Amino acid sequence: MSTIISEPRLTSQQIETYRREGYLIYDQPVLSQDKFDSLKAYFEKLLATLPEGERPEAMDVPHFMNPELLKWAMDDEILGLVEPIIGSDIALFSTHFICKPKGNGKRVPWHEDSAYWKNQINPMEVVTVWLAIDPSLKENGCMMVIPTTHRTGRQGFSDYNPVDQAKNVFANEIVKEQREDDKRVYLVLQPNQCSLHNARTMHGSEPNTSNKRRCGWTLRFTSTSVKFNYEMFGGKHQVYLARGRDLGGNHYADPTRSYPEVMAARSASSTYKYSH
Description:
Elements: H1 12-21, E1 23-26, H2 33-48, E2 59-60, H3 70-73, H4 76-86, E3 90-100, E4 108-111, H5 113-116, E5 121-122, E6 126-132, E7 143-146, E8 160-162, E9 172-174, E10 185-186, E11 194-198, E12 202-205, E13 214-223, E14 227-228, H6 230-233, E15 240-243, H7 260-267, H8 270-273
Antiparallel strand pairs: 1-11, 2-3, 3-13, 3-15, 4-12, 5-14, 6-11, 6-13, 7-10, 7-12, 8-9
């Protein structure tokens, strides 16, 4: 857990843009170069040991089995990006490597993170840092957002229809009638840059049919004043105290140990198997 409160890394204008639009592109280096290089090397090691038949887009909550990842996930340079938005008492809710291989990387259907976490987080105040491991370009399926959807329409709880999971990372997509696809914005990033988005913001990405891999690491943070519904977690999820103190009566996982029992429970649950 970080105890040092770093200098805020966002300007007042950037914070206002995030709150108004529901997302922000941070086009500066997120981590120092040596930290980023070591993170990428660690990811490549995880990717090389992925079980046969498991898609690289589905490397969800890897920190549960690899707590070494927490030294990057809860690094002051990353927390300095979210502190101006959610305050200095910060919980790490989740992480997920979404790695689209070149040539056949799956599409991420239009969705809101909040729809997957309904009744698990109250209030639904989550900021995601999407850290580019590879260049994330329009040609290789970078993330897209539909601006302002965190505060318009269904405000994070749209209706969904099933989609073909052979072609999509997730099994459901926001119904077309509740989206304005023509307003999409492509979030182009270079390695070690990031975007931030609100949990209620509609986002997705197109398949990667290019000759360039596209990988990003999503890190999801809340204020510790948020209340987590551990009964709904059912032993299938853990939350970590990243900085400061608890304000919501929550309890937190031990960042020094792995949680094979949690991963076993997740793999047996259709609810969590494809969560993100």
